[in-house]
Specification:
The complex is a heterodimer of chains A (53) and B (565). Chain A has 53 residues and is an all-alpha fold. Chain A has 3 helices and no strands. Chain A has a domain of 26 residues. The longest helix of chain A has 25 residues. Chain B is built from 15 helices and 3 strands. In chain B, strands 1-2-3 form a 3-stranded antiparallel beta sheet. The longest helix of chain B has 36 residues. The chains are: A mainly alpha (53), B mainly alpha (565). At the A-B interface, α2 and α3 of A face α5, α6, α7 and α8 of B. Bound molecules: protoporphyrin IX containing FE and copper (II) ion. The site of protoporphyrin IX containing FE has 26 residues of chain B, from α1, α2, α12 and α14.
């Protein structure tokens, strides 16, 4: 609450600024993005290579 | 000088006016010292490797060569760099935020685990049955304690990351800063976030590999190994990039009083790193069968270019901020007076600017180009690859770390540098040596000379290959550059260790060395043609033109390799 008050006197923070300041959200993005696009996608590709008969 | 508060003893540093938590100071010092010791070891192994790959010298027999190469890769890339990064994040979190370090006891656990882990792995390598290179691709097997050491080392680093995050929580609670985190601490936060993904990936692959080496797991799929290992191997390079860029910002502000041209733009660039940088890991799999082009191109081209954009932003704003500060301080004539009047003889500055230039022009341009699936086929597994990454990891990261070390010796160790004449030329020896090494190896790689190869002449092999004379020459020139850079690296270690041991004590009433904010001249009219930093703009355009030309040349070359007859 006290944080809100301090900000009200100044300009309100933009959405981008709030994302940038939110350490937990940044951590979440930094884990989810590579896990989904690199690791999971990559593992799926390897896992779906057919086994030679 | 030490003062004790209810929370933690600290001192006010005369050189910087910073309030330094003494427990944090001890931890930064020990991590930095261990880092430099390991740099010496890694550099010595690098010298042996370079002297073997120099065709006319060809120093080591094959088995020792691969042992030295494994030692060099592991010690230089992982141990030196990560120890130093621990020093950086502790320094930024505690000193820059004027905050006490969270759980110093755990931070000591980090030091012990990383030291013991590195030692165990080093012993495994020296015993000779773990010459599997730092990538340790299965099904090549190393001794179990090779992997165990790496796992302990990684756990130590992870603890360090949590000490950093804990310190941020304390700083917020105790309100040691207002509003957003300062940019330098913010950069460390980004590096730590990337590190958490990196270390988790390392654990996911190295723990099963350790169990496999003990015989507890039957087999590990080599392709699966490569995918997950590179989530670790590539992302750890992105920790380095983020850390050295953070150091660029720090040095620009400490040495010039420079303020980032736009905090918001710099922070947004860091957000792009968080979103896209690690996806570039796929560039290590570009020549792997079994992975689709969609996977390769989506990640290394489309997504990765967003991260490249971010790097270009950092590469523009750091010199730009220095230019603006220099112009405000009176060097406002022509395009480049600000650059000529920079303190080129000061090792902190010289290391930083060389790091920016080498990282951009040698590491950056070639990295972007070789990440294109088609172009990658020309250079995959050639000596071009080490040529490229010594531009990033040695010329970029290592030089930036050297620069920060020169800054920290008077501040944290409270000692003056010994051998100032040597410190003046050291960045140039290391930087120019690595630049020659990188460019020449890339030349040889373009001609097809393989990486990780003991004998390019294939003497006594069933299959032979006639290299053009140029390939031998490039290898010789490159390795001579390598030897020069080892001399520069050794000089660095001598100066650092010597200064810490026998350097003159910095007097308690020493003058402050932090440059005053260039902002105090903010009303002055600076720049040319409506640009505040026209010189940087010209340099950035030059980089861009080089990149486009280089990209074009590589596709042209690819076309000649693949004749459609
Ligand atoms: C001090 C000057 C240095 C010299 C002369 C040097 C030399 C070399 C040479 C000749 C190779 C072998 C290339 C091959 O045959 O495939 C190599 C590989 C490598 N170097 Fe360096 N290097 C230096 C500094 C560094 C630094 C500072 C780092 C990291 C921070 C580093 C990281 C690596 C890595 C990761 C490899 C690859 C190892 C592998 O293929 O497994 N080097 N270096
Ligand atoms: Cu990579």
């Amino acid at each position: 609450m006290s944080e809100m008050k301090a900000n009200e006197t100044k300009k309100p923070l933009t959405v981008l600024q709030r994302i940038l300041d939110d350490q937990n959200f940044m951590l979440m993005l930094g884990l989810v993005m590579p896990t989904v696009f690199y690791t999971l996608w990559g593992v799926m590709e390897v896992a779906t290579i057919p086994i030679a008969p | 000088m030490a003062i004790t508060t209810a929370q933690s003893p600290f001192r006010i540093d005369p050189l910087t006016g910073m309030r330094i938590d003494l427990k944090a100071q001890a931890l930064v010092k020990i991590n930095a010292v261990l880092a430099v010791v390991f740099l010496l070891v890694g550099g010595a192994a690098g010298l042996l490797v370079a002297l073997t790959r120099w065709p006319a010298v060809h120093l080591l027999p094959a088995d020792l060569f691969y042992m030295a190469l494994t030692a060099h890769g592991v010690v230089a890339l992982m141990v030196w760099i990560i120890f130093f990064e621990m020093a950086v994040i502790y320094f930024c979190a505690s000193t820059v935020l004027s905050c006490r370090l969270a759980t110093p006891g755990w931070a000591w656990v980090q030091v012990v685990l990383m030291t013991v882990g590195a030692a165990i792995t080093a012993v495994a390598i020296l015993q000779g049955n773990s010459s599997v290179m730092m990538t340790s691709y299965v099904p090549m097997d190393a001794a179990p304690h090779f992997y165990l050491g790496l796992i302990l080392f990684a756990v130590g680093a992870l603890i360090g990351c949590f000490v950093f995050l804990g310190t941020l929580v304390i700083a917020k609670e105790e309100q040691t800063y207002k509003g957003s985190l300062p940019l330098t601490v913010y950069g460390c936060l980004i590096a730590v976030i990337i590190a958490i993904f990196t270390i988790a990936s390392g654990a996911i692959i190295l723990i099963p590999t350790f169990l496999w080496s003990l015989g507890l797991i039957e087999s590990i799929d080599p392709m699966m190994y490569r995918v997950i290992w590179w989530a670790f191997g590539h992302s750890s390079q992105q920790i380095n990039v983020t850390a050295h860029i953070t150091i660029w910002y720090t040095v620009a502000s400490l040495a010039f009083g420079a303020k980032p041209m736009s905090e918001k733009v710099s922070r947004t660039a860091f957000l792009l790193y968080i979103l896209f940088l690690q996806l570039g890991s796929v560039h290590h799999l570009l020549s792997d069968p079994g992975m689709s082009s969609a996977y390769k191109i989506f990640n290394t081209s489309y997504m990765m270019y967003m991260a490249v954009l971010a790097s270009m932003i950092h590469g523009l704003t750091v010199p730009g901020a220095i230019e603006v500060a220099q112009r405000r301080n009176g060097y406002n004539n022509g395009l480049f007076e600000w650059l000529r009047k920079c303190p080129w003889g000061n090792p902190v500055f010289a290391c930083t600017i060389l790091s920016i230039i080498i990282f951009g022009f040698i590491g950056g341009i070639t990295g972007v180009t070789m990440s294109v699936e088609q172009v990658n086929m020309i250079i995959h597994n050639t000596i071009y690859v080490p040529g490229h990454f010594h531009g990033t990891v040695a010329g970029g990261t290592t030089l930036a770390f050297m620069g920060l070390t020169y800054y920290l010796i008077p501040v944290l160790f409270q000692r003056e540098l010994i051998l100032p004449w040597l410190a003046k030329i050291q960045p140039w020896l290391f930087g120019i040596g690595i630049a020659v090494f990188g460019v020449a190896l890339m030349g040889a790689g373009t001609l097809g000379v393989p990486r990780r190869h003991h004998d390019m002449t294939f003497a006594g092999q069933a299959l032979s290959f006639e290299w053009p004379g140029m390939a031998y020459m490039m290898m010789a020139v490159g390795e001579i550059g390598g030897v020069v850079s080892v001399v520069g690296g050794a000089a660095f270690c001598v100066i650092v260790v010597g200064s810490i041991l026998v350097g003159k004590k910095v007097p308690a009433d020493a003058k402050c060395i932090v440059a005053p904010h260039a902002d105090r001249n903010a009303d002055k009219h600076i720049g040319m043609g409506g640009f505040e930093a026209p010189g940087t703009f010209v340099l950035a355009l030059t980089l861009f033109v080089c990149l486009v030309l280089y990209y074009f040349i590589n596709f042209k070359y690819l076309a000649t390799v693949w004749t459609l007859a």
